[in-house]
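#help-structures
NK: newbie question, is this the right format to request a structure? protein is SpoVT-AbrB domain-containing protein
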Amino acid sequence: MAKKKKMESKMEPLEGQALLEKVRELGNLSKEEKARACGYYTVTKNDVERVNMMKFLNALIDAEGIELDSKANGNGRGGRSASYRISVQSNGNLLIGSAYTKQMGLQPGDEFEITLGRKHIHLKQLGAEEEIDE
């Protein structure tokens, strides 16, 4: 896995189109050899070379323009995505999660008037023109 490093200077890791072109150029080499040739390795203080596959693969994903993360919720953290379904909790409450309130642009303290229908709940934001059905 780790190899002794020969005396040569380390290059900056390739990114973007240059990375994609280099990987295509390297053809049938192994993933580790491609990563190393593209600059995705480090050398320890004992001169042992370690290939950083995770950085290499992430750089390839970025270079291809593949978006793996859902729309960011603004704070860089993951979390649940909105499923547009909720269940009554054991205490009888219905909880509307933050995924919905963020998507609607709601702020702490926003108030709603609740109207109950036969099989629906109608929310009308106080001080707003629009109505929100749930």
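mod (FA): yep, format's fine, and the tokens are attached above. The radius of gyration is 26 Å.
NK: thank you!
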